[in-house]
Amino acid sequence: MRLSLILIFSGALSFANTLTNSTFGQPETNCNYTQTAPYTTPTCPVIGAPSEFNIESISVTVAGDNVTATIDFNYGGGQSLAPFVDGNVTLQPGDLFFYDPTDPTQKLLYGVAVDSTRPHSNPFIAGDLYQLGGNVSVETAASALNNPNAYYRPTDPVLMTDTNGTPSVAGIGDGVKVAPLGNGTTAADYSVTLQFTAPQAFVDLFQNGSIGVDFASADCGNAILEGNTVGTTTNNSAAPEPQDATLMALGIGLMAAAGYWRKKSTRRG
């Protein structure tokens, strides 16, 4: 009697997560903007026209080292995400930032460039992932706009910046893809998809399928969505991929089992 055993290990952990703005599409009334925190009244989370700035949701999915981030939001510059003028200020999309969801300080660790150009920095590659630190730092809305007279959120992080050279890419992206979505009220005007490969250090930030995200629809910070995504964790494989020591133990066990059955078969013959 001959016994053949075959074990197949494949696949990787997958994560699916969404952070949703519960006030999206709700009327904003009795708005009162100021140039000091909190900059607006609670009934008006968006400074300015929600049709130009409001954010509906941010979704993040991971399969192995492949990451897809989807941002549904309104933007005054249209589907091309071109710069637009609000009042006398020219605005552009903010970058998407990530942080450890267990970190109460919400220290930003990675960012994806939604647009390549920025006012006070060497260009970034739109859709690519960058690790913050070293030459790559975070620019606030106050620094990006340099306008003390406008109403906006000056302390909010909005863009990555690098004035010392070409920023070093942490993960290659597939560009920025924009599709029309809704009417800007019941659903956001546009859905922006960012797909990129990520280093293991980025994937390790996920805790129970959740990661911290921070996004401003424009570099004024008039609308922001930040917090931990809430999602599910699944495993695409039939069994977790074993480490070397586990494989060795399994191999020894299988060899012993095969020897046992071979010996038993011989006795019966």
Explain briefly what this protein structure is:
Helices cover 14% and strands 32% of the residues.
Written description of the protein model:
With 269 residues, the chain is α+β, with helices and mostly antiparallel strands. The chain folds into 2 domains: 13-236, no CATH class; 242-269. 14% of the residues lie in helices and 32% in strands. It has helices at residues 50-53, 141-145, 200-203, 244-268; strands at 13-20, 55-63, 66-73, 84-86, 89-91, 96-99, 108-112, 129-131, 137-140, 157-161, 169-171, 173-180, 190-197, 212-216, 224-228, 230-235. Strands 12-13-3-2-1-16 form a 6-stranded antiparallel β-sheet, with no helix packed on it. A 6-stranded antiparallel β-sheet has the order 11-8-7-6-14-15, with no helix packed on it. Strands 4-5 form a two-stranded antiparallel sheet. Strand 4 and strand 5 form a beta hairpin. The relative contact order is 0.23.
How would you summarize the topology of this molecule?
Blueprint: E1 13-20, H1 50-53, E2 55-63, E3 66-73, E4 84-86, E5 89-91, E6 96-99, E7 108-112, E8 129-131, E9 137-140, H2 141-145, E10 157-161, E11 169-171, E12 173-180, E13 190-197, H3 200-203, E14 212-216, E15 224-228, E16 230-235, H4 244-268
Antiparallel strand pairs: 1-2, 1-16, 2-3, 3-13, 4-5, 6-7, 6-14, 7-8, 8-11, 9-10, 12-13, 14-15
